[in-house]
Structure formats: structure tokens, C-alpha cells
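Question: Hello, beginner here. Any chance you could explain the protein record under this note? Any guidance would be welcome.
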Amino acid sequence: MGRMIRVVVVEELALLRQGIRLVLETDPQIRIVDEAENAATSLEVVEREQPTVVVIDGAGPAQLAALKERAPAARILLLSQCRDEPFVAAMLRAGVDGYLLKSCSPTDLIRGVRLVAEGRQTTPVLDRHLQLVVHHKREADDLLSKREREILALVAEGYTSKGIARKLQLSPRTVGNHRARIMAKLRVDNCIQATAQALQLGLIALPSGAPLLAS
């Protein structure tokens, strides 16, 4: 038997919470270490238990980020009734490791917990195209540095290289070097293509600060 998968279940309804516990505990490799009613009350629990997986319903991007901050090694499996693909893709971009519908079978739930515990992703509700979009976005997140994403966001807002240099207090040559590296890393021919790809993948945000969803 492999290492024990320690799980915290976060669900508002006590009956559903108990049902999730009963299903998962049929697997001898899974142990429920604690429960919480919602994302806010789960923070202390997650920080204390440092679980392998958090099975959670009803969490937004800010709450997911807070969970990751309290338990950086924990994997997050989101359960939801929503099958809207842009929403699912947005949750994956926000940091969840798996997304299952609440209508999934007990077998799918156990399999989902096992997959995310192994560092793999489970998103059966997404079609193949959106799975690839999210996958490439995560690759690009790892590929582009924070400064490169910052410069690319300014390009999207219409700044020239000189304008970016003034705003970030860099030399125009340094900005030019960053732009060249961005295009090379994203395998595009110019910054217009790089910007379009970054907006599609959600790497950069609109000037308002609201991230674009992949379509």
C-alpha cells in the first residue's frame, strides 16, 4: 500500500459532508482527517492538518489562494454543480488541481482524489480543447517570468517599448530584450501574437484587472 492520502472535506451541507466521508473512507488508502463547513472556516483546519487533498465546494479564486497559502503542498479537488466550461477553466487557472461535478459516481470521486494526490489533474467535465488551453496556460506560467508577464500586460494596454521603459524604470534595450525572450518562449513572431495568446490563456489581465477567460 502507498502512503496514506489525508483529506479535509469542505462542504456546507452536513448530509453531503457525511456522504463524501463515507464514500472516500471505503478506500483504505484515504483517511478523512477533518471537516469544515466552508472555505473561510476551513483555513484553520487546513493549516493545522496539512492534508494531502482538500475536497471543497463553493470556493472562489481568493479563497483558493488562501488555502494554498496555508497549506502549499495540499492538492485541491473542487466539487460543484456547475458544468459551464469557461467557469471550470477559470477555477483551474485559479489553482484547483481537479474539478468534479457533484453528480459524479462514488468511483469517480475516489479516483479523483487519488489522481490529484499523485499530482495529476482530473477534469472530466472539460472538453479536450479547454483541457489543452489550461495545460498550455500552466506551462506558460512556468515559462514566463514575473517581469515578462508584467511587460506583456503593458504591451496589451498599448504601451510602446519606450513607455514601458519609463513606467518600469528600465532601459529601452532591456525592455527590447524581454520582448524578444517573450516571443521566443511563446513561439510567436511578434508581440501582437504574443499578446493575443496571453489574453486567450489568461496570462495577463485587462486594464481593469479582470482576467480574461479562455474561449
User: Anything to note?
Assistant: The chain has two domains: 5-126, 138-201. Residues 5-126 form a domain with the Rossmann fold fold (CATH 3.40.50.2300). Strands lie at 5-10, 30-36, 53-56, 75-80, 98-101. Confidence is low (pLDDT under 50) at residues 208-215.
